[in-house]
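Hi R.,

Here's the chain you asked about this morning:
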Amino acid sequence: MAFILVVSLAILATGLLAYRIAAGVAEQNAYRLSQDTLNKTSQALDEKLNKIKTSIFSMMMNTDYRRAVGLEPSSDFQNYYTHLSALQSVFIQLKLIEPLINSILIATPDGQYYETSKIGLPRQSFYSTTLYTKAKASSDRHLEFWIAGHVDPFYNEKNDMVSFLTEGAMNEALSGKYVLANVKVEELKKYINQYLDWNEGRFMLLSREGEMIFPSDFGLFPDFNQNSAVQHALQNDEGYFDYQADGKDYFVNYKRLGSAKEWVMFSVLPKSSLLQQMGNIKWAMIAIILICLLVSILFARLLTRLLLLPLNRLQTVMKKVGLNQLNVRFESVFRDEITQVGYRFNRMLDEINRLFHEVKEAETEKRKAELKAMQAQIDPHFLYNTLNTIYWKSQLQEHEHVQNMVLSLSRLFQLGLNKGRELTTLENEITHVTQYLNIQKQCYTALFDFQVDVQSDVDIKQHILKILLQPLVENSILHGFKNKQKGGFIHIRIVQNGKLLVLEVEDNGEGLSAIKEPGQELNGYALYNVQKRLNLEYGNDAALHLASEPGLFTKATITIPSYP
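And here is the predicted structure, written out as tokens:
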């Protein structure tokens, strides 16, 4: 972390310093580019306005014009319509020379000459308009000035116009005779906007009085001409200032036109566009800083992993040991102190494994001893009853019964011993309990009868824990039928339920007064021993349940996993 912190601070300091230097250079270049764009645009506008003026002055040299305004000796003021007709071709030639000119008007005391192809406003005299008032108020030796955006009072035009007004001759005094050339503001805007290379900024043209020439609608900047910085700029020739509108910052350059000295052109450029190069530099710097930080972090992590590799390996081994994986061991090619600790940890694991195997073997032997002890508890109890019955039958000379009982007892012990194995087949277990029931029927004549039903899909060759059914039927005989003389019935059912084998022993004895759940103490040591043996062999996968109705029945159900 210290290494990363030092490297990060160094990279950040270098990046910020480089950004400040690059940003300063980019900002100066952007402002210079903005000023150059304004100069280029204002120069183009000046040239266009001068061309319009030159076109008007060249028209004044035309003979038809000079005859119409009385500059030629052959002028005939009485023939007004002749002069009007002759001037139409002059007007057409003038508009071909300068297409930006929309309309021409020549005003003389003897009549007004206009374009007949345009729809004029009736009885509108130049001498009754404010244009004539402005002309008379001028003190210039030769009258020529531009008029800001207005509605044309002579032609039926709906668009705003800018107009150039001059006297009827360049070098000769013609009292009261004027030439007016109209230019559409929209066409002038299109001409200017061809130099516009940004989306949010624009050029603006204002008169000295703050009147907006174009754009005629204020658009993005509704209060532009009311701004104090703009008012100050209108009294100067050129400069720049900052401007804000709708929460955005703009950079404004301005310059006074040479051909129309009453007009000032402004370029309003959003700083986001102007300083876009600075944004690119900023993101490039950020990317470089992030890459350097990432490299430093990766290098620091690599160095840390190299230094802590033995410790991480030892930690991994300890975690696996915590998950009971006692066969893992620590390995390392190093010979440092951590490696020595790891080797000692290996020796500790070896000792734990040795002790674990000793305990496991002791527990296995203990478990086998418990099973044998439980089986030994069952066998003497039954053997006593059986031998006692054989004795009395022999006294009664019932030799055939005695022979059958001895054979059944022999078969019973053979199946019960099962060559010392704890598991037997289901078939042997059924035979074992059948032999036991046959013996008990000889002991308790006419007391009970029994039936064994095995479901057809049950595999009788599968292995189960031996001597499970005999303790249950013994419990039915000794406790269920203890108050009966006859009519007892034991029903044994064996069914397959998926991966579970279900063994049921049901009798019609007198039932139990209180049923205990598995895990609690059960009536009689026989049932308790069956429950204990099931827990030792199958764990939680096996269960013994009792169901009883006093005076009606008792049913014991054993559920164990089904093994092939």
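One quick note: The two ends are 61 Å apart (CA to CA).

Cheers,
M.
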